[in-house]
Amino acid sequence: MQKKKGKGSLFIVSAPSGAGKTTLCKKLTSTLPHITHSVSYTTRAPRHGEVNDRDYTFISREEFRSMVNKSEFMEWANINGELYGTSKKRIEKLTRNGTDVILDIDTQGAMQLKKKYRGGVYIFVLPPSMEILKRRLKKRMTNSKEEIEKRLKRAVNEIKSYRKYDYVIINKKLNDALRELESIIISHRHGVNKVDTMWVKNKFLKQEEEHGSYFFAD
Ligand code: 5GP
Predict the structure, then answer these.
(1) How far apart are CA 135 and CA 131, in angstroms?
(2) Ligand 1 atom 10: the closest Cα is on which residue?
(3) 107 alpha carbon to ligand 1 midpoint, in Å?
(4) What kind of architecture, by CATH, is found in domain 10-37+99-211?
């Protein structure tokens, strides 16, 4: 697509745990072209079925600390005692050739990026209701009541940040939410600042400049 200029954009998606953000982001990258998911680094243990370097890059706390000290993260956060971070190098590599990147990160990380990085698109995903959020968390977690309570408290705290985002999606039906997310990305791609001015010039304006007329001889 010649008319698109420059690097890919960052789409930052946050949501309380249980809003269905991960499924939504995975579905998006499999249906929409030219967008990919950035693989974060984490100190938490892999869950059943998770693959290293696909879902996360699983590293030790020492390795994580060393990356922090070397300023290798664009942002990082401590979530429930585990560390999560987005690698600058990975994002640079992905966006360099114009690929858009979706970052599935928490509100702390999103707010760090917002302060440092201009041009990202910030999207918040909400569950349809508190009742549904509770139900989803209970179903998902075999953990204790206290653990669920802790997650719910954290979820409500995350929701308090929604106004700092550019867009809000309510994930009631996955396919509707997916369509809304795709629409946001597609609209952004068609922003006027995404158009390569040289492409427009060469394609439409050069003839007039060079020949003073649209009806010059072929
Ligand atoms: P989980 O452990 O359930 O995969 O993820 C827990 C939370 O960490 C989710 O809200 C997820 O969005 C967030 N997360 C994943 N990767 C990163 C990251 O690189 N940075 C930040 N700030 N949050 C992340």
Answers:
(1) 6
(2) 106
(3) 9
(4) 3-Layer(aba) Sandwich (3.40)
Give, using CA atoms, the residue closest to atom 6 of ligand 1.
79
The answer, yes or no, to whether any atom of ligand 1 lies below 6 A from the CB of 86, is: yes
Q: Where are the beta strands (DSSP E) in 92-170?
A: 100-104, 121-126, 167-170
Cross-strand pairs, 73? 87
Taken in order 104, 41, 33, 191, is the CA torsion positive or negative? Answer: positive
- The whole model's pTM is what? 0.92
CA distance 28 to 169: 14
**Tokens 């409500």 — which residue?**
156
Q: Is 158 in the pocket of ligand 1 (CB under 6 A)?
A: no
Residue-by-residue DSSP string for 62-103: HHHHHHHHTT-EEEEEEETTEEEEEEHHHHHHHHHTT-EEEE
Q: Which atom of ligand 1 is nearest to the CA of 22?
A: 12
pLDDT one digit per residue (tens) for the chain, 218 residues: 456 667 999 999 999 988 889 999 999 999 999 999 999 999 999 999 999 999 999 999 999 999 999 999 999 999 989 999 999 999 999 999 899 999 999 999 999 999 998 889 999 999 999 999 888 888 876 667 888 888 889 999 999 999 999 999 999 999 999 999 999 999 999 999 889 899 999 999 987 778 777 766 55
